[in-house]
Design brief:
Layout lengths: L11 H4 L1 H18 L4 H36 L6 H22 L2 H11 L9 E3 L5 E3 L11 H31 L3
Helix pairs in contact: 2-3, 2-6, 3-4, 3-5, 3-6, 4-6, 5-6
Length: 180
């Protein structure tokens, strides 16, 4: 028989679902579709997704963090197992914001510049001189792949790492509620 721990009746793990689901959708559905577009259009589509996400995800994450913090306080804070798990969930729920501002800053900045038209799209091979070429963005580039596609691929990988923060928050929230 499953017994639930006594925790105030707020759906703690569910509060994290929206940012986590949005990020999971971003790297599993949206970005592969955007990668099919020509580079200039792909950068503009990425920008539209970014602008939508920046309005929704941080407030949801901070709301989830506050809810987990409240639940942690009500469960006894770090003085109890459930309280400690919920506090960890609150911290994890908010950690994707500094992750985005630090780890993803360079890639996001380049994609923002491309999407806003502040820099011109370049191919992955930049001409150096008399017939010599060298990859523009470093290792792993494929011939004439656009810079936007390379950056979107990098962003997808970084976004997967970012999605682990709300997923961790949800896991900790579930662990606090369900006695394993």
């Amino acid at each position: 028989m499953l017994r639930l721990r006594s925790v105030p009746p707020l759906p703690a793990p569910h509060t994290t679902a929206n940012p986590g689901t949005g990020m999971a959708t971003g790297f599993s559905i949206t970005m592969p579709a955007i990668s099919l577009a020509p580079p200039k259009l792909a950068a503009k589509q990425w920008l539209a997704v970014y602008n939508s996400g920046i309005l929704v995800a941080p407030p949801l994450a901070l709301t989830a963090a506050a809810a987990f913090g409240y639940l942690s306080f009500r469960a006894g804070g770090f003085g109890s197992t459930a309280g400690g798990l919920l506090a960890g969930a609150g911290i994890s729920a908010a950690c994707f914001i500094p992750y985005t501002l630090t780890v993803m800053a360079s890639t996001n900045g380049k994609l923002l510049d491309l999407g806003n038209g502040r820099v011109q799209e370049q191919t992955a091979a930049a001409e150096l001189g008399e017939g010599e070429t060298q990859p523009l963005l470093g290792e792993g580039q494929a011939g004439e792949m656009g810079e936007a596609h390379v950056l979107i691929g990098r962003w997808r990988a970084l976004n997967f790492g970012r999605a682990l923060w709300p997923a961790t928050a949800a896991a900790l929230g579930f662990a606090a509620i369900f006695p394993w």
